[in-house]
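Data deposition worksheet. Section B asks for the primary sequence of the deposited chain exactly as it was used as input, without tags or linkers unless they were present during the calculation. Section C holds the resulting structure in token form. Section D is free text for depositor observations; keep each observation to a single sentence. Incomplete worksheets are returned to the depositor.
Section A, Depositor: J.P.
Section B:
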Amino acid sequence: MQFSLNKNNLSLALVISCASLLSACGGDNDKKDSDKSPIPSSSSKAALSSSSSLSSSIASSAAVSSTAVTSSAVSSSSAASSLARFTPPVAWVDTAINSADGNYLVAKGEILLALPEDASNTSFKPQWIGRDGFALYTFAKDTNGVSNCAGNCLANWPPLLAGAKDAASLPYSIIERSLGNGVTARQWAYQGLPLYFFKTDTAAGQTTGKAIANWQLARPIPVGTQQHATKGEYLIGKGFLVNSQGTADQSKAGFTLYTFAKDTANQSNCGATCIANWPPLYAAAEAQTAGDFSVVTRSDNTKQWAFKGQPLYFYAGDSAAGEIKGEIPNWTLATATTSSAASSSAASSSSYTSSSSGYSY
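Section C:
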């Protein structure tokens, strides 16, 4: 899926200190007051894809809660709210926009979040507020599909909520969460991890929450899928990718990804000569793993994405997105049927196989 983002909305602002909030930032445990569309009744369900395709694997390795919510309806104030969103109001930010923070997720346009109803921070009310370009975060103490942020934590880290008719589109999902006093709502999640704002971020481009223990900027996994008529669904690079210098590079977006038979579980055996023809899918130092995706450390201390324990590579012989020229001895198209590294390495030959291209290693 592709997202557009107005870079003019992402001017950097002075970073505000959160020292006074450290005890209540969740390490342990105006505009429009009404929801534009009713919060679902107990008979409603968050629409999650049941596909068993590679898209499902990319989204999460475990099921995400999609049970109905039970809060009362909030009055509607805009006809626009009647339109269902199948992807959340989220966009990617790249290093060219905010070089200090790299790739992370931000809100897009007007969003629904939960704010405290009073100073006790025991109950929260959904409100529509403009947050275009505001950073989104994940909480280390959350688990797949479950939010463990409540009370003072939630007051400082407002959740990105889903509207009544919103439905999840992978790799996003919608979870059920508590707003206190028996009221629940639906919250957007990425790779199964609930998404939040930080109270002290007051303008687009600010990322003050990254300094708080247990909180991280929400980082996208730069992998998508492409359908082939005979080969089925396979992996491709997506969005702004990190190159060997650690900077943003979109030149390989849409290009096919491969695995190497001589790699072992979460270890690349493609060295300096090899990567000249098989560039790794590099990962940022702050990359967040999820599902079948992990990050391995290469011999030169750079980071590389892996799928099912198998490091991922591009092929120098592919000159355009959609080309699949790298299926040569020892190299395999990364697909939904890609085996785990342990089983594939055990089945591979003990000697390298040459090819006329000299690229097989």
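Section D:
Confidence is low (pLDDT under 50) at residues 1-25, 27-53, 56-83, 345-358.
Residues 307 and 351 are 23 Å apart (CA to CA).
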